[in-house]
Amino acid sequence: MYPYTILINKERPLAPDYRPQNLVCADFAFAAAPDSEKRLLEKETALAAREMIADSQKQGLALYGISGYRSFVRQKELYEASTSGYVAPPGTSEHQSGLALDLSCPQVGLQLVEGFAQTPEGRWLYRCAPLYGFIIRYPREKETVTGYAWEPWHVRYVTRALSLYLSLTKMSLEEYWNI
Ligand SMILES: [Zn+2]
């Protein structure tokens, strides 16, 4: 069984050579080029995301995948090039696990910005992501617990059982693992 509920953060990094064996190319609305590494996701994560995006489209919404899998090497390049403070050090990004996905919508120019949370797509994602096994991994009210600034665009697949549990208890993944 793939470790879907794994906690990855600055204290618990992934090994530099960690790469999921079951990466597949996302086959739903995605802003990245067809051959981009950004489209890769762990297989079950990709299936859950496809279902979520399809259901959101039935509501007339336009959610787009922006970034899925990211290798240790790519994360290292981004980290070294960034001055924003948003970019996680290499090994500590959930994107290396293939279980994390950044989403956005045309109303905010497909950018990863806090304003996404106020769009119909961002509000729908906040409400409905747990129904598909995803959590908003870095909520606004948990910044001191997760150690990350609010990222309304970043969802993490944890299985539907755990996402619903975390949603009902209002716990972050850190709090769940520290029980
Ligand atoms: Zn992200």
Please explain how this structure is put together.
This protein is α+β, with helices and mostly antiparallel strands. The protein has a single domain (23-174), classed as Muramoyl-pentapeptide Carboxypeptidase, domain 2 (2-Layer Sandwich), CATH 3.30.1380. 30% of the residues lie in helices and 12% in strands. The protein has helices spanning 43-58, 72-81, 120-128, 143-146, 160-169, 173-177, and strands spanning 23-25, 40-42, 64-67, 100-104, 134-136, 154-157. The strands form two sheets. A four-stranded antiparallel sheet has the order 3-4-6-5. Strands 1-2 form a two-stranded antiparallel ribbon. It starts with 22 loop residues before the first strand and ends with a helix. Residues 95, 100, 102, 154 line the site of zinc ion (ZN).
Task: Chart the SSEs and their pairings.
Layout: E1 23-25, E2 40-42, H1 43-58, E3 64-67, H2 72-81, E4 100-104, H3 120-128, E5 134-136, H4 143-146, E6 154-157, H5 160-169, H6 173-177
Antiparallel strand pairs: 1-2, 3-4, 4-6, 5-6
The protein binds zinc ion (ZN).
The site of zinc ion (ZN) has 4 residues, from strand 4.
